[in-house]
Structure formats: C-alpha cells, structure tokens
Amino acid sequence: MQSERSERSPEQAKRAEGRSPEQAKRAEGRSPERPKRAEGRSPERPKGVEAYKIAVIPGDGTGPEVMKEGLKCLKAVSDKCGFKYETAEYDLGGERYMKTKELVPDSVLKELAGFDAIYLGAIGHPDVKPGILEQGILLKLRFHFDQYINLRPVKLYPGVWTPLKDKGPEHIDFVVVRENTEGLYKGLGEFKNKGTKDEIALQISHNTRKGVERCVRFAFEYTRKRNKRKNLTLCGKTNVLTYAWDLWDRTFNEVAKEYNDVKTDYAHVDATCMWMVKNPEWFDVIVTDNMFGDIITDLGAMIQGGMGIAAGGNINPEGISMFEPIGGSAPKYTGKNVINPLAAICAGGMMLEYLGEEKAANMLEKSVMKVTGEKLKSLSAGKMGYSTSEVGDLVCSRLNLEFEERDL
Ligand code: IPM
Ligand code: MN
C-alpha cells in the first residue's frame, strides 16, 4: 500500500487525508476484488500518476447531449482541483440493441468491473418495447454490480420554481435512500392460467433480512454523516403489507439501537407523499424499499424543480457505483440542444463525492446553485433561456470564478 500511495501526485495524496476508510479505498481504486488499475494502465498514461477510471454510457435520446455537458464540467473541475481521471465510452442502449440484439454483453460487464465508477446518461428508446432496455441494461447493471442503494437527494436550489406554494430552499432539502436490488423489482412472479378468464399474475416482493439490513444501516450511517437534522424516516406500509414491512420495521428498530444520535420516525408511503407536499421540511433522510423509493423520488423530483435537476447514485459502497440523471431519455427533445443538463452535471458531482473528491463535488454544486440562482429562467427543456451546451458553459465559467474568488 505504501508504495502505491507514493505513486500519487502530492495533491491527490493530500486530499486522501481526512477521507473515510471506504472513500480512501475507492480513491485508491484498490478494492481487493478488483484488479489493480495500474495493471491495466494504457501506455500513454504518464507513469506514476493515478487516475480515476470512469466508464461513460451516454445511452439513448438526450443522454449523449447531457453527458457531454457533464463531462465538460468534470474536466473543468478536475483542472481546478488537480485530480486525474480517464474515461472510456460504451455504446450500450437502444441503437446498439436494434442493430445487434445485444443489451449488456458479458464481455462489457467484465470490462466495467475494472472501473472506479460508471457515469450513465439515459436508457430508453421509443422504437424498443418498454421494459427491454430498462430491465436488460439499467436494472441489469444495478443488480450485477450489487448497487444496493439508490441515493436520491431532493434539494431545491436557489432561484428554482417549485409547485409547492410558500416553500423555498429552506424547506426542501432531504435525501431518499431507496433499496435498489430487491422488493418488487427482483422480478419474481408467475402467470397462472395465462390468457384465460381465470388468469392470475403474481408479482412477488422479495425482501431478505440481509438486504434490508444493509440498506437500513447505510441510511443510518448516511444520516449521521450528513449531520443536518439527524432524523431518519422509515417509509413503508406496515398496515397492509404485513410480511415485508414487518421485516423492515423490525430491522429498522433493531439497527436504530446502535445509532442513539439519530432520531427516527415512521410514515406510511401514502402519508409520506402527503407530507412531501404539505411539509417537506419535516424530512431529513427517508429510507424505503425499491418500489416506494421509485415512486416517491419522482414526486421528489417535481418539488425540487423537475426532472432537469434530479440526480441519483446507484451505490455499492464496497464496489462499483453508477451515477445518472433520473429523468430518462426524453426522445422528443433529442438532438435539439434544449434539454437541461444540470441533472447529469449534478450526478457527476455525486460521483466525485463517492470517489472521495469532496472538495470538487462541493465546488461543482456551488456553481450549479449560482447558475440556477442567477442565470436560468426555468429548469424545463426549451425554457431555460439558454441551450443545453450554454448551460454547461455557464457552470464551467462559474466554477472558474469560484476558484478565483477562493484564491484571492
Ligand atoms: C428510475 C427508473 C427505473 C426504475 C426504470 C427505468 C427501470 O424509473 O430510475 O427510477 O424504476 O428504477
Ligand atoms: Mn423511476
């Protein structure tokens, strides 16, 4: 380890101090299960300098347009902060599927395992039957890399319109921790008497003690580390789904005993929707299952200003995580240079945080907040007052300013 550490640039070594052990491990890119990055290093890369390896999947629809801006901002912030990274692009998505019938070939899965993170644009193509790409690419990657947390911040940035009357940035700032590998999304079920009048379709919610516990534990740790109101809400449906939510409830209460500094409460999912609209300020961190998390984070995206700003991370704290804007491929805006790239840019910021580049992540978020606060007319596609690429440029120039002001 010592010799590996000394290969780093002094700045990278300095930043490594003060990281959590997990972050340090990720920043080193030395998880025991994965090959050392140095072994696969390309000859052009200057010897002796560590760089994060990032797999880029631009994907479908507007995915490539927003990723271009995300990568532009990544470059700008790396120039300023001094960390190094390299990218490799993968053409997974609808076009490749239509040409070759391939979704994610095994060879690609193997290659992806050698990266530090995956940065994804969007998956979903109007000419492919719904479900094929979503399950075959997006869910496939989440499950294959055991990205058991889907982390979705719901934060209203300055100057952003919210449909909630009388609510501002001081009221809307919470994070949803969505379980990301189990529940109804596991794909378990069957048809009985398919196609007859007596047809029955079963869709099973599969919850394991281990799966629930690791998610709940992550949520407690996250609430503690976030260090805001230190309040964790379990969002479920204990009054009706009495098997699954009994397990969740018991697990939550048992794990809670280890976190005396974190306050806990419980809300049914329907009530959670109600409070998210009426009193969003009550929430700090919410932990929930896969399906409920999927649903409440679309509501969350709306109250934070829309799909144009909502970012998420599919996280395996011990492995390879994948970061994405949660808005989808928006086919009708494709190629028009009108889609909002901020969600992709913010997803890049989350990726930096998880790689251990916290300062870079903060600077990027600050710059996005300045741009929403001072420049954009709206966060909706075509109504921003700027094109997609201009919004990327605005964030980059703001980043440069932030660093100049800081260095004065
Ligand atoms: C999301 C999406 C996906 C999900 C779909 C496309 C499979 O809605 O990321 O929220 O349900 O997780
Ligand atoms: Mn969704």
Helices and strands, with pairings:
Blueprint (H helix, E strand, L loop, with lengths): L1 H5 L3 H7 L4 H8 L23 E8 L3 H19 L3 E5 L4 H7 L5 H7 L4 E6 L9 H13 L4 E7 L17 E7 L3 E10 L7 E7 L2 H18 L4 E6 L7 H13 L6 E6 H10 L6 E4 L1 H14 L7 E5 L5 E5 L16 H14 L2 H17 L13 H20 L1
Parallel strand pairs: 1-2, 1-3, 3-12, 5-10, 8-9, 8-10
Antiparallel strand pairs: 4-5, 4-11, 6-7, 11-12
Manganese (II) ion binds next to helix 11.
Question: In the CATH scheme, what's the topology name of the domain at 1-148 and 335-408?
Answer: Isopropylmalate Dehydrogenase
Mean pLDDT value: 91
- State the CATH superfamily name of the domain at 1-148 and 335-408: Isopropylmalate Dehydrogenase
Element order: H for helix, E for strand: HHHEHEHHEHEEEEHEHEHEHEEHHH
Largest sheet: 10 strands, mixed
Number of helices: 14
User: Unreliable runs, pLDDT <50, ≥5 residues?
Assistant: 1-18, 29-48
Shape: globular
Spatial arrangement of strands, main beta sheet: 2-1-3-12-11-4-5-10-8-9
Distinct small-molecule ligands in the complex: 3-isopropylmalic acid, manganese (II) ion
CATH class label of the domain at 1-148 and 335-408: Alpha Beta
Category from helices, strands and their pairing:
alpha/beta
Give the beta-strand count: 12
Proportion of residues in extended strands? 15-25%
CA distance, first residue to last residue: 37 Å
